[in-house]
Amino acid sequence: MRELGFAVILEDEIDGAAMLRRLERAGRTCYKSEGRITAESAPRFVAMLLKSGHESVLEHEKVTLRLICDRGVTHEIVRHRIGSYSQESTRYCNYGGEKFGREITCIRPGFWSEDDPRMAIWRHAMFQAEQAYFDLLDAGASPQEARSVLPNSLKTEIVVTYNLREWRHFLRLRMSPAAHPQIRELSTEIQRVLREKIPVVFD
């Protein structure tokens, strides 16, 4: 059994300044104030839209991210309805094959330290799940049948596309103190990546 941490990978070539300019052009259509566009006006205009709650304009731009996390987290991600998802399939991926090194990969929980006894219990459970999965494959089960014993901690990759308004909505919910610790950790990194690429919208 292999262990990994989560990862956030941009799938788009993002020019945040160009995005802000396109958002300004779209938003100014509502006020017919296109004549007020200047080389520097986009950040200020988009900030004004956000302050006034006129976030529908943000739906004109989208970002696609590849997220490496556990399957428990993706069960929460796909509950967001305004999005497109492509996820690694445990029906068709055979982790007993050479392609996967005949091992499963799990995402380490970030809420227990290495010397915490609960981490040892978690690790033992992951090894047991891995062994049960391979035993089922060896007994003739198909990957889609054997997956029934795979844990929520199983590493998965999911490609997620949301418009900018939905990313803001996602982050408001998933960075909340009430959110699950692992999705909150992942969301904090998503916000960092998006804020770096698209200032104003994700400040």
Q: Quickly give the structural class.
A: alpha+beta
Main sheet record: 4 strands, antiparallel
Strand order of the largest sheet: 2-3-6-4
Cα-atom Rg, whole angstroms? Answer: 21 Å
From N to C, what is the helix and strand string? EEHHEHEEHHEHH
Mean pLDDT reading: 97
Tell me the distance between the termini. Answer: 39 Å
Principal-axis shape equals elongated
Q: How many β strands by DSSP?
A: 6
What is the strand content?
15-25%
| Uncertain stretches | none
SS field, number of helical segments: 7
- Helical percent range? 40-55%
Kindly describe this structure.
With 203 residues, the chain is an alpha+beta fold. It has helices spanning 16-31, 41-51, 71-77, 117-138, 143-146, 164-174, 181-197, and strands at residues 2-4, 7-10, 62-70, 84-87, 105-107, 155-163. The longest helix has 22 residues, at 117-138. The relative contact order is 0.21.
What is the fold's blueprint, element by element?
Layout: E1 2-4, E2 7-10, H1 16-31, H2 41-51, E3 62-70, H3 71-77, E4 84-87, E5 105-107, H4 117-138, H5 143-146, E6 155-163, H6 164-174, H7 181-197
Parallel strand pairs: 1-5
Antiparallel strand pairs: 2-3, 3-6, 4-6
List descriptors.
single chain, 203 residues, alpha+beta, four-stranded antiparallel beta sheet, two-stranded parallel sheet, 43% helix, elongated
Compact description:
By secondary structure, the protein is of the alpha+beta class. It has helices spanning 16-31, 41-51, 71-77, 117-138, 143-146, 164-174, 181-197, and strands at residues 2-4, 7-10, 62-70, 84-87, 105-107, 155-163.
